[in-house]
Each structure stands twice: as C-alpha cells, then as structure tokens.
TrEMBL record:
GO terms for biological process: arabinan catabolic process; xylan catabolic process. InterPro entries: Actin-crosslinking, BXL, CBM6, Cellulose-bd_IV, Fn3-like, Galactose-bd-like_sf, GH, Glyco_hydro_3_C. SUPFAM superfamilies: (Trans)glycosidases, Actin-crosslinking proteins, Beta-D-glucan exohydrolase, C-terminal domain, Galactose-binding domain-like. Keywords: Hydrolase, Signal. Catalyzes the hydrolysis of a non-reducing terminal alpha-L-arabinopyranosidic linkage in ginsenoside Rb2 (alpha-L-arabinopyranosyl-(1->6)-alpha-D-glucopyranosyl) to release alpha-D-glucopyranosyl (Rd). It is not able to hydrolyze alpha-L-arabinofuranosyl-(1->6)-alpha-D-glucopyranosyl (Rc). CDD domains: beta-trefoil_FSCN_BglX-like, CBM6_xylanase-like. GO terms for molecular function: alpha-L-arabinofuranosidase activity; beta-glucosidase activity; carbohydrate binding; xylan 1,4-beta-xylosidase activity. Residues 1-50 form the signal peptide. It comes from Planomonospora sphaerica. Belongs to the glycosyl hydrolase 3 family. This is Exo-alpha-(1->6)-L-arabinopyranosidase. Residues 892-1010 form the CBM6 domain.
Length: 1011
C-alpha cells in the first residue's frame, strides 16, 4: 500500500467514515428505438413504496445489515443486470431504475435519457469556471462551496426527473496536467499532486455534503490513471516508472479517497504499463486507501475496447471477468443496452471465469452508494427534500461570480511606458482602470461566452462587454473580425436568414445574406458566422454547408474551415472538421458549387475557386475603436470545441495568428492596452506580453465572466488567482506527449530547469506583500514552518502563501522544488498574519526502488516560502534525519521495473492480471545504480520473454562500458511466456553501476547476479 502524505492546509472539511454514451451512437439512434430497448430491459417505473416489512427499507438499521438484506433478496439474474450502467427496476421489491453518471465537472452539465435511447440532455444551471480555473483560486474553502452548489443542483434535477439525472456524478477529473498540449487540460486542476489533491478533496466533499451516513451526491474521480493524452488514447501505453507512479500519479487520486471525498473512480481508456486501465487492479490500490466501500465504473465503451481496439482479450466474457475481478463494478458500455453486458457476464459465470460471489461483491459495492444516497429511505434521506428550485438560485449566481473573480490571474501589470513600472501594486501600473475614463472593448471573445464539452447550457450571459459597460463609458466595441464575401462565376455565396439553411452560390451582389464574419482560431482554422442570421456555417447532412449553428459545438465540430490561398489570388474553401483525420473520409473536403449553385464536398482539383472580398477590415475597425478611448481592452483566446478537447490534443500552444496581429495593431494605436486572455491552457504569448502593459488570464468562466472581469479590471476585487501550471516560453522543446517520465524528461515545475514565461504559482496583485521571520521548529512527527506576511500596499488583497522544499543531496534526482503547503490569506492594508504550515518528516520521503517503499534520506532541505515557485521571499534550511538507502543487492531477484535509469525502456505487463516488466528493443537499456558486487559477480540470471531470439549485454559504468558477459535469450513463444536465461560473467568487484543492454526485442521481469 502506497503511503501518501498531504501538507496542504485542509479546508473546513469533516471526515466521513454509466454512463456517458458514445457520442457517435447519439447520431444514430432514434427515440423510438431507445424506448423499445428500454422496455426490453424492464426499465419501467417502479412503485413509489415497497412493502414496509423489508428490513432494507428500515433507515434505523446499520448500513451493512440493510445492504445484506437487499442483496439476499435479489436473484442472480437481477444482480447481473445491475452490472450495466443502466440498472433496471426490480418491480417486485419496489426498486426503480438507477443510472450511473451525470457529468458535473464545473456544474451539472449533461446526462442521458433512458427513455429516449440514451440521448444527451443538457442542463441549464449554474456553470462555474472550468476546473483549471477553480484550481487557480488556490482556495479549497471556495471550491468546497462550489461543490456543495453542484451537488445541490444535482439533487434539484434528480427531483424533477430521476430517470435522466442520476446522483452518481462523474467528477472531478484529477488527472495531472503534465503536458499543456493535452486536449482536456481544461478538465484537470494542476500539474502538482498536492494542489490537485487539495482541490479535488474540497470539490468532492462539497458534492457529498457533511452528513456522516448519507450523500448529497456521489462524486467519482476521473480517469484512473495516467491519462494525459488524447491521441490514440485507447491504445497508447502510459509507461510509468515506480517513482513517478508513487510520488506523482497515485497521490493525485489517493488524497480525495483517503479523505473520504469520493465514492469511486472511473477507469481510463489508456493502457498503464501495458495493461488496459479498465482491468488495472483497483483492489490493490484505490480500495486500500479508504475504509469506505467504493463504487467504481469504467469509462464509456471501455469494456468493448478490451476485445476491440486493444485486442487484450479474445472474448467479451474473458474481458468482463477480468474487469469485475479487478474491481470495476459497473460497465459503461452499449448505451442503454444492458443485454450485451448481461450476456458476457453470464457466459463468464458459465465458463467458470467468475463466481456468484464475484458478482455479489460488485453489487454490494453498488448498493453501498445507492443506500447512502437515500434511495431506500422512506423519506429519501436528509437531502431528499431538495427541489428544482435550487437550480440557478441567486445564491449560486453570487458564488459563481466570486469563483470567476478569484480564479482570474494577473500575469503582467506595468505602465504603458514599459518595465519601469513593473511589479504588482506599484504606482504607474495600468490596472486597475479608472471607471471615469473611456474604454474600447475589442476582440473575438469580447461579446460572447463559450461553453465546453463538459459544460451545461448558460441560463444567462454576462459577456466581457456587458460587464465593462456596467462600469464605464464604452466608446467603441468590435470583435475585430474581418467581414468577407466569397464570389465565383459572378455569383456570391448566399445564406438564408431566420433559422438558416443550405448555402448556395446565388446572388449577383453582396448584401447581408452574402457576408460572413471570419474568426481565426490558429493554424489556419477559422469559423464563419453568417451576417444573415448570426449563426455559424456548418457542414450539414455530412455533405453540404448551412448557417444553422449558434456556436461551434458537438462531438463532431463541423464548423471548422480553412480559406486556402491559391496562386491566382483566389481561395479554396476547405472543410477542416474532425472527420478529415479519418481515413474513410478521404480527400473530399473542398467545397464545390454546381451550376445550379448547390454545394457539395469534393477534392481540391475539382473545388470551386472563390474570390475573397473584404467587406470590412476587423483590424481597421479595432484600431479606430482603440483610438477613440483612453484604454483598450482586447479579449482574445480559445474556442473550447476547436483548440483542443476530448479526443484532440493541441499541437501548438500559440495564440491564433490573427488574434495576435489584432492585439499588436491595437497596442500600436493605443499604448494603454489590456489583454484579457480567455482560454484553458498555458499559451506562448512571449511577444505579446513584451509589447502590452497588462495581461489578465481567465479560463472560460461561465455566465458571470463579464461581471468578474469588470470587478478585477476596475479594482472592486484585487486579483489573487495563481497559475497551476508552468507556462513555457515560445520555442521551448516539450517532450513527446506520450512520454510520462517527468523525472527523465525534466518536465513540470518539479523537474524542469528551463526558465518559463510564467512559473507555477505565478500571479500578481494590486497591492504588495512583505514576508518576514521565517521560522522552522521541530515537533511531533516533523516540523512546523511559520512566516509573517504583511500587506505593505494601500489596497486590501489576498496573498497565496506557498511553501516549497528542495532536498540538497539524494541517491536519486530530486525535484528542483516541490509544493508542500499553501494558504490563501486576506489582509487589509498594513495588516499582518503569521501563516503556519505543518511539515511531517514523512512528507519528505521518496520512493525507494531498491526496497519498494517510501524512505526518508538524511539530508539538508531548503525551505522556501514565497508567492510563486520562482518568487521565493524567505529561505531557511532543515537538517532531516533518515535512513541511508543501502547499495543495491542483485544477489536477490530485483524487478526489472525498479531500474534507476533507462534509455527507451517501456514498462509493460508481466501477465494480464498483475505485475510489471520492461520491454526493450535493440540498443535500449536499463541500469541499476550503486550495485554492491562484493568480491566479484560471476554470473547473471534473467527472467525473460521474447518472440524471437535476442540477447542482453551486462556492462558496468555505462551502456558502452566494460562488457561482463552476454546472456543469450532463446525465443520463449510469446511475450507472456516467461523463462530464465543465464550466462557466466567476467569478474567485477566493488560498487558499480550495472547496465543491461538489449540486442534484439525482448522483455525483462527480473535479474539476479551470482557472486
């Protein structure tokens, strides 16, 4: 069992002892077909009350007794049916349908309607800032309140329609933000496990409520584990060496579970060390971290991937048995159709792959949460009286505004003359703005709010322009987008008004119906908004174009185009949506107009060449607006459905070229330019940040974005958000997105020595803070670190005090610095507060691969306190006693996966059930440091598997060092057929680094040297 320690200051928390269908399937199903399937499964409404004599209905009895009673009343067929995401009603016991999975990442987002074939139903409630924005508050107390609001609104929706709105909530996402190119970066919290653990614990506790026996709603952590890439996400292998696993990946999940702030996990799509996460052993990990019973689920389609894209098992019964034995309780698959799951589980039972006891164990886990949700209580439990009236309440609107405000990060704030006024709170800085002065509001995100795949619908909108207009005189407002017309053969591309419809090449002149606003999202991708009706052009019916979409959205984002310049001055209009990457789609992505004006998609050679006419220059309009005002606020950023999302990683972190050009033109026209960057990931804005005096970052922050922005811009609120990720500089080389070894690659703030554009924890304020008197004191099981923080400026404000440590000497590569605690404190001008952090000695342990456990080494540690990871204000040192990690002893079998260093090694599965091994190709190697060879090693025995004959060289000092011997490996018959291979070695004595260098392809599971 892994030991993970947290030293963040927990918020006011009390410890307490399904399914998203495939989006592709949504396009294919009809409501009628769904209804038939639902009836076939018996998913009909159940009576409101069961017979009162059943003990499971007696809420005065202990939970376990009630679970046992109900489990004993279910038939095997009923129990098996409950392993699917849609658990059918059991009418004879008065039990209704239970469905898993309502999406609730930053508010209730969407769920699926069992009565209509699993079609998605979108909520219209409180949409809080995206998850990365919530974490940017560094305020667990606030995040817990947000979680409480989300759990309460889940109850409200459930009260209205429990068949749609289930109370098992699939949130939060706690996957670490290791790589900023991850398409789902907006869904996570941080690149740091301690901060991620603190925020996820707060959100989960808020959702659950503080009743010791009941749940307001049941949060499920996503996605276990090492899920930080979308490219080939169901077939890629996240190779996680033990130190990265135990010090980085697992702690992010363990914190919330160990603090009883989650009720289960959702398994990820990817493979982890060669084994699909869908069958990674949860019983040996997550179930050991809490005394509570967990209800674990697979991700959508995960069960079928095991025999499909992953080809890990030959049959679905084998896959089903492996999942259940691994600790997955619910199969999120086949939408509303439970029959395939039932068939595969029944087949597994018939084949002896499962027993009824295995099924009982899973159903018992499911029931533990269903009971805690109050489903079987006569009054529905303490949260059973909540109604739909709580949704989008005034209280939640106020909380949303506060969350959006606290999440905003002031990246830069100087005067218009440049660096002379650099620094938070110094006189001459551009922000905060004077409301008495005129302002221009410019940019593609100035007067719109975007949602994302895991957002609900906004019940109302306060755009940046709306918020600023409430505070100051806006003399100019423009999106800065070019307005164009496209002409070919004497006719213009024409769009219908009203609700829109198919575009045609029709009109001889360019009126409003022939005009389109062009929005640049980078790398040539644009969206076209029809002036005729204000809607976006989309590929309709998979063939033609229509102006019917209110915003780019959906699983298939069909509103993406490119205007490709040709040598003769014309352009080709290219559809650039998701499906162009699909091999079956082919080259037919270019627009062709027939003689009658109708449009279709064809090849580039057959495409229509359009003349692009600029009706209005967006930059010219923006410049005019900027010149009319004292200050220009330019709102730029991303479109969440285009600039990376589920199933799509980013390949570029830059701001769209057209947006950057817009900012530069406005800055030239008006030196008092504020850039508001609205997106969900680190962005390489080096040149932009050099030129403009002030930059403010916000995630897509929901309906209150405009109010929150105005609160910050005009000083009603003092910015105190902090970055939860490192922002790299332009041109910085990031490792392959599939390389999860942050130690080897020097990734994240923990191991990177590169100078970032903005560091982890960075964020400025309108006031200044002084740090004094850092003290460390031994006591109890560790240390106490305290520092005095004073507001030395003229404005009240919040400071996020951050504690880092660095271990000076170690057997292994240590983090450059590591977050050990944080606290957001509010101080009036001149006010001081002493902030105290507990620091347990165990917090400073590393994962010792030589013995497979955590160990604290004797060493001096730097204690670093400041306002970000690169703005350390006070330093001290601690001498920590510990145990010296002994020299490697290879006379006993050592797991190959416990190497100290490697080149090209990939962690893979030893067997399909358990164990890690190392896969090597010719020339790749692993090494073991500081091996005690005694008076001399004379032989080597390796546990090997190989499809073809190979060999392993045993060397010392380096991969090209002294050759002690070569172990010949005969073909074993497959990668899961293990054998031993031996060889004599030339004598080598003393303490040396030992290298195992592959010649040919093979797998290693362990190694022993004889001496």
């Amino acid at each position: 069992m892994v030991s993970f320690r947290t030293s963040f200051r927990p918020p006011r928390m009390r410890l307490r002892v399904s399914a998203r269908p495939s989006p592709r399937a949504h396009l294919r199903r009809s409501a009628a077909a769904g209804a038939v399937l639902a009836l076939a499964l018996g998913l009909c409404a159940a009576p409101a009350h069961a017979a009162p004599e059943h003990p499971f209905r007696d809420s005065s009895l202990p939970l376990q007794q009630r679970v046992d009673d109900l489990l004993g009343r279910l038939t095997l067929a009923e129990k098996v049916s409950w392993l699917h995401q849609y658990q059918p009603a059991v009418e004879r016991l008065g039990i209704g349908l239970f469905k898993t999975g309502t999406e609730a990442l930053h508010g209730i987002a969407w769920s699926t309607d069992v009565d209509n074939g699993g079609n998605v139903v979108t909520a219209r409630g409180t949409v809080f800032p995206q998850a990365v924005g919530l974490a940017s508050t560094w305020n667990p107390d606030l995040v817990e309140q947000v979680g409480e609001a989300v759990g309460t609104e889940a109850r409200g929706y459930h009260a209205e329609n429990p068949r749609v709105w289930g109370l098992q909530l699939w949130a939060p996402v706690v996957n670490l933000l290791r790589d900023p190119r991850w398409g789902r970066n907006e869904e996570g919290y941080s690149e740091d496990p301690l901060l991620t653990g603190a925020i996820s614990t707060a959100y989960g506790r808020g959702i659950q409520g503080d009743d010791p026996d009941h749940l307001r709603a049941a949060p499920v952590l996503k996605h276990f584990m090492a899920n930080n890439n979308e490219i080939r996400r169901d077939t890629t292998n996240s190779s996680i060496r033990p130190r990265v696993m135990h010090e980085y990946e697992l702690p992010a999940f363990r914190t919330a579970l160990a603090n009883d702030a989650a009720t289960g996990v959702m398994t990820a799509y990817n493979l982890v060390n060669g084994r699909p996460a869908t069958v990674t052993d949860l019983n040996a990990s997550v179930r050991r971290w809490t005394d509570r019973t967990l209800f674990n689920v697979s991700d959508a389609g995960g069960p079928n991937n095991l025999t499909g894209s992953q080809r890990y098992f030959a049959t679905q019964p084998e896959a089903a048995a492996a999942m259940i034995k691994a600790g997955v309780d619910s199969f999120t698959v086949d939408d509303t159709r439970g029959a395939p799951t039932v068939a595969s589980v029944n087949a597994a039972l018939a084949q002896g792959l499962l027993t009824e006891a295995d099924v009982d164990r899973a159903v018992r886990n499911i029931l533990s949460v269903r009971f805690r949700l109050g489903e079987f209580d006569p009054d529905g439990g303490p949260y059973g009286k909540i109604t739909k009236a709580v949704v989008d309440s005034p209280e939640h609107r106020r909380l949303n505004r506060r969350a959006a405000t606290e999440a905003m990060v002031l990246l830069k704030n100087t005067g218009p003359e440049g660096p002379a006024a650099e620094g938070s709170g110094k006189p001459g800085a551009l922000l905060p703005l004077d409301p008495a002065k005129k302002v221009a509001v410019i940019g593609p995100l100035a007067d719109t709010l975007y949602t994302d795949w895991y957002s609900g619908a906004l019940p109302y909108e306060v755009t940046p322009l709306d918020g600023i207009r409430e505070r100051a005189a806006v003399t100019g407002a423009t999106e800065g987008a070019d307005r164009i017309a496209l002409k070919a053969g004497g006719r213009y591309l024409t769009a219908p008004a009203g609700a829109g419809g198919d575009l045609r090449l029709a009109a001889a002149t360019a009126g409003e119906a022939e005009q389109f606003d062009v929005f640049d999202w980078g790398q040539g991708i644009v969206t076209l908004r029809s002036v005729a009706n204000g809607r976006y052009v989309s590929r309709a019916n998979w063939s033609t174009l229509a102006n019917t979409q209110e915003q780019p959205a959906g699983w298939f984002v069909q509103e993406q185009f490119k205007l490709e310049a040709q040598g003769d001055g014309t352009v080709l209009l290219r559809y650039a949506g998701y499906e162009t990457a699909e091999p079956w789609f082919g080259p037919n992505v270019y627009v062709r107009a027939a003689a009658d004006g109708t449009l279709s998609l064809t090849t580039a050679e057959n495409a229509t060449r359009f003349t692009r006419e600029t009706v209005r220059s967006g930059i010219a309009e923006a410049v005019a607006a900027a010149k009319s005002a004292d200050t220009a606020v330019v709102v730029v950023g991303s479109m969440p459905f285009i600039n990376g999302r589920e199933a799509h990683d980013r390949t570029d972190l830059g701001l769209a070229e057209g947006q950057e050009a817009l900012v530069e033109a406005v800055r030239e026209a008006n030196p008092n330019t504020v850039v508001v960057l609205e997106n969900s990931y680190p962005t390489t804005i080096d040149r932009l940040a050099e030129k403009v005096p002030a930059v403010l970052w916000t995630t897509h922050a929901g309906a209150e974005t405009g109010h929150a922005l105005a609160d910050i811009l005009y000083g009603d609120a003092n910015p105190a958000g902090r970055l939860t990720q490192t922002w790299p500089r332009e041109g910085a080389e990031l490792p392959d997105i599939l390389d999860y070894d942050i130690v080897k690659t020097g990734s994240t703030y923990l191991y990177s020595k590169d100078e970032p554009l903005y560091a982890f924890g960075h964020g400025l304020s309108y006031t200044t803070f002084g740090y004094q008197g850092l003290k460390t004191r031994r006591g109890g099981d560790g240390f106490e670190v305290s520092v005095k923080v004073t507001n030395t400026g003229s404005r009240a404000g919040d400071e996020v005090v951050q504690l880092y440590t660095h271990q000076r000497s170690s057997r292994v590569r240590q983090p450059v610095r590591q977050l050990r605690g944080f606290e957001r404190v509010h101080l009036a001008p001149g006010e001081s507060k002493t902030v105290t952090f507990p620091l347990k000695t165990a917090d400073l342990a590393l994962w010792d691969v030589t013995r497979g456990r955590f160990a604290v080494e004797p060493s001096t540690h730097d204690v670093l306190v400041g306002s970000s990871s690169d703005r350390i204000r006070q330093r001290a040192t601690l001498r920590v006693d510990g145990e010296r990690i002994p020299a490697r002893d290879l006379t006993r079998a050592v797991r190959a996966a416990d190497f100290d260093d490697h080149s090209g090694a990939e962690l893979v599965d030893e067997t399909k059930a358990s164990g890690d091994a190392v896969a090597l190709s010719s020339g790749e190697w692993i090494s073991f440091a500081d091996v005690d060879l005694g008076r001399g090693a004379t032989g080597a025995t390796l546990g090997v598997a190989a499809a073809e004959a190979a060999s392993v060289e045993v060397r010392t000092g380096s991969p090209a060092g002294r050759l002690l011997g070569t172990v010949r490996v005969a073909a074993t018959g497959g990668v899961y057929r293990w054998s031993t291979a031996t060889a004599a070695l030339a004598r080598a004595a003393g303490r040396q680094d030992v290298y195992l260098v592959a010649r040919g392809d093979l797998r290693l599971k362990d190694a022993v040297l004889t001496r």
